[in-house]
Amino acid sequence: MQRAKWAAICAGTALFLSGCGGSSSSGETTSESSGRTTLSAPAVTAAVVVSLPENETRVLAVGSSANGLTLSGVIPGVAAEYRDGNLILVASEVDRIVTGTLTLAAGETTASQINVVVENSSAEPIYQRTQALTRQHQLLLALAADKQLYTHLVDLLYLSSRILHADKQTLLREFNPVGQSSYGDFQLTGSQLVAQLDLYERGLVADSQLADALALAEASLATHSLYGQQRLAALEPELVDVLPSLSGGSFGYEAAAGHYSRYQSDHQFGQTSADGTWTYSPEYRFLARFDLNSDTSGSCSIQEVL
What we know:
Strand order of the largest sheet: 1-2-4-7-6
Structural class: alpha+beta
Number of domains: 2
Shape: elongated
């Protein structure tokens, strides 16, 4: 992915600079000027990667103005100027991740090559949300968390002699999200979202296109999740004396935790503290072991829930 590629180059450049006696980004200073943030970066060496958010300015010390360097290259959304020994980069507002290359040369000889990455910081919430949904897509498609909880509740009914073994087997077979039309819809929109995310990270589509694909995938997830909700609700009458209601809750994005959850997005089941920590209400604490997310999904593989 383009974003990951540039991140790797940035890391390599930092090592290169430190090995050559240059400074890392920790040596930068920041000042405010004309509503923009100016970041005074280390001196440019033979090759460097510069990453800056949209609507910000970065100044890189290149050398003496007597060096006679000339600047070439055009990057959409970036105004670049070489003046008095400094390379000045001004990033405008962008609607995607922008990358490009500038060259400083002394006559026919290239002195420095500057690879520039402009981060679309205003779309970061959409980007993070998209990453979470694509990361969890297969587990959400399988309704893995619902399947685990449903299986546990069916076992509870059987062990408490409320249903026969044959009834238990029938109930377990009846949980079949793959057989629902919503499965195919969410499978399609999720795959389309993965494709749009790849294009966005390579700077080939705008954040509005990513947001549209995300909205379609989330709508499909909402419809698909109704099946799991209905299957759980069907067991409630037999467990009303031992468990609180589980019929609420629809999958939503929990920004503080960075994942989609049926229960952590609904304050019927708990609340998020000021530091972003989710805490289940006492009567719903048992749900924690069934609420699969990006941090705990390793405890339940797709093969185990299908």
